Amino acid sequence: MPIHQKRPYLISYDIADPRRLQRVHREISEEGLPLQYSVFYCYCSPQAIQGLMARLKGIIAATEDDIRVYSLPRRVQVDTLGKTPVAQGVMLYGDTLPEGIMGRREDPDGTTRETQNGDTQKNPQGAP
After folding, report:
1. Where are the domains of the chain?
2. pLDDT at residue 58 above 90?
3. What share of the chain is helix, strand, coil (3-state, %, to 5)?
């Protein structure tokens, strides 16, 4: 894959020191969207990930901290339950999701919402 071609990544971390934790969080926030407290979604080039990892290497204590970067496949299925990272009606990835991203979540009322590349459909409870 070309080094400038964007792809999805999942980044997670476990940082022992509160000061380093703040610095790591701030640095990853520059590249990605927070999904949970220490989990980020990034849609960027391998070159950008390499640069981020180089910057993070200068922040962490290798014997105490852990940062993981997972390269995701082009077609990603995301299922969620419960609280979402953004308010209802707000698109997490912009106007449209990157090609191949599909999602499904169950709302508190039992309604299932499916999203594929920005198109949202509402299905009654129990519908496939």
Report:
1. 7-71, 76-123
2. yes
3. 20, 35, 45
84-117 tens-digit pLDDT: 665 555 555 443 444 445 555 555 666 665 554 4
Alpha-carbon span 42 to 33, nearest angstrom: 6
More confident: 38 or 76? 38
> What is d(CA 42, CA 58) in angstroms, rounded to the nearest whole number?
20
d(CA 120, CA 91): 10
- What local confidence, expressed as pLDDT, does residue 35 receive? 87
Report the candidate in 31, 19, 29 with the shortest Cα–Cα distance to residue 59.
19
The CATH architecture to which 7-71 belongs is 2-Layer Sandwich (3.30)
Distances in whole angstroms, Cα of residue 56 to Cα of each of 3, 28, 30, 42: 20, 8, 12, 15
d(CA 28, CA 52): 7
Contact 89, 83 (CB under 8 A): no
